[in-house]
Amino acid sequence: MEAMEFGRPGKEESTLEIMNVDQPINDKWWEYWLEDEWYAEMVYLKLYGKLRAEDAGEDSLAVWRWWTRKAAVYQLMDGVNHYPLLTYQERNGWQSWCVWKVDVNKVLFWAHDCHGHYSADLTLKRLMGHYYWPTRTKDTHVFCRSCQSCQLTGRKRPSQVP
């Protein structure tokens, strides 16, 4: 799968370009990111270089500093057919695609069910460097614990060698 090779060091450079915020933003796709409850503020900050009016208040300097520190690990990119991508830089340096809240179950199904019903920790390792969302760790553990197939077969143990 091509998404598996995205952003890994040592692989071919990606053809994605970082968005130039000096250019006018014509693409309506960014509106979807601006409506997402997880990423709206981050995308707004990255696109316009400021916080929304409702987020600026008495502690605006502290809020600004918090958001700019948080924003350091996110990038806006222009993907295939100018489809906008928001990426997150993992601690190991890999770039992961940010996933909208509505797509989390699809990604978890791909990572867990399509690859052998591995434990939550192994499923989480499979996601790292590929897909990111703010509640990834918690959602992965809940998804794996609630997998009906895993509950029926029980825990997989290594075979005993006589």
Can you tell me about this structure?
38% of the residues lie in helices and 12% in strands. With 162 residues, the chain is of the alpha+beta class. The chain has two domains: 1-98, no CATH class; 100-162. The protein has a five-stranded mixed beta sheet, with helices on one face. Strand 2 and strand 3 (84-89) form a beta hairpin. The model is unreliable at 1-26 (pLDDT under 50).
Q: Can you describe this structure in just a few lines?
A:
With 162 residues, this protein is of the alpha+beta class. The chain folds into 2 domains: 1-98, no CATH class; 100-162. The protein is 38% helix and 12% strand.
Average pLDDT reading = 76
**Category by helix and strand content:** alpha+beta
Q: What's the helical proportion of residues? A: 25-40%
Total helical segments: 7
Main pleated-sheet profile:
5 strands, mixed
Radius of gyration: 19 Å
Strand order of the largest sheet: 1-2-3-4-5
What's the SSE pattern?
A: EHHHEEEHHEHH
The count of DSSP E runs of length 2 or more, i.e. the number of strands, is 5
Low-confidence stretches: 1-26
Strand content: 5-15%
Overall, the morphology is: elongated
Distance separating the two termini? 39 Å
Number of domains: 2
